[in-house]
Amino acid sequence: MPFLALFARLDKLLKDGNVILAIEGGSASGKTTLGEMLKEIYGCTVLHMDDFFLRPEQRTKERYEEVGGNIDRERFLSEVLIPLRRGEPIQYRRFDCGSMTVLPATEIVPNRLTVVEGAYSMHPNLSCYYDLSVFLDVSPELQKRRILKRNSPNTAERFFNEWIPLEKNYFSKMHAAERCDISVLISE
Q1: Using CA atoms in the order 74, 75, 79, 84, what is the torsion angle rounded to 10 degrees?
Q2: Main-chain phi, psi angles of 90, to 5 degrees
Q3: DSSP state of 163
Q4: pLDDT tens across 94-138, in order?
Q5: How crowded is the C-beta side of 173, counted as CA atoms within 13 Å?
Q6: What is the pTM of this model?
Q7: Is it the case that residue 1 has pLDDT exceeding 80?
Q8: Which pairs from 168-175 meet CB under 8 Å and 24+ separation?
Q9: Which domains are present in the chain?
Q10: Integer Cα distance of 127 and 104 in angstroms
């Protein structure tokens, strides 16, 4: 079982209080699936970095040149991580890709375990707020098969030509895998 070390660490931390877990990794590495598994096992709250894409006015050349700049980490920090760390309710405002707007807030009360899943979750500006972190590593071949299986050809091309290169740059320059407490190689 690839997540045995993660479950053991989580169980130990949960004995001492609330836990915030980051699941970092590339596209199609299984972050969302692991988050849902943890929700089923622990009854935890799962939050998604994909809900914090940049708003249209933030999508500047300069912003995209920042490593990890394609996520609104400032909003994620102020609206989610800081209140969560204080044990306060979160006013969770998802970014909607269809309307390109931030949706009205939904209040989320802190849970014993809160999981943040998504690429860029371990950005250096965010990583100190987590109690535990796991990096999911997936081979390029498996990643490609998963992306082709779950996306249209046009969307898959965007993954291969835009999003995955940005992730690889972030992982390399920000040492995302090395910054995580646990690393898991994902296989089929």
Answers
A1: -40
A2: -100, 135
A3: I
A4: 999 999 999 999 999 999 999 999 999 999 999 999 999 999 999
A5: 13
A6: 0.94
A7: no
A8: 168/26, 169/67, 170/67, 170/68, 170/119, 170/120, 170/123, 171/26, 173/67, 174/67, 174/68, 174/122, 174/123, 174/124
A9: 4-186 (3.40.50.300)
A10: 26
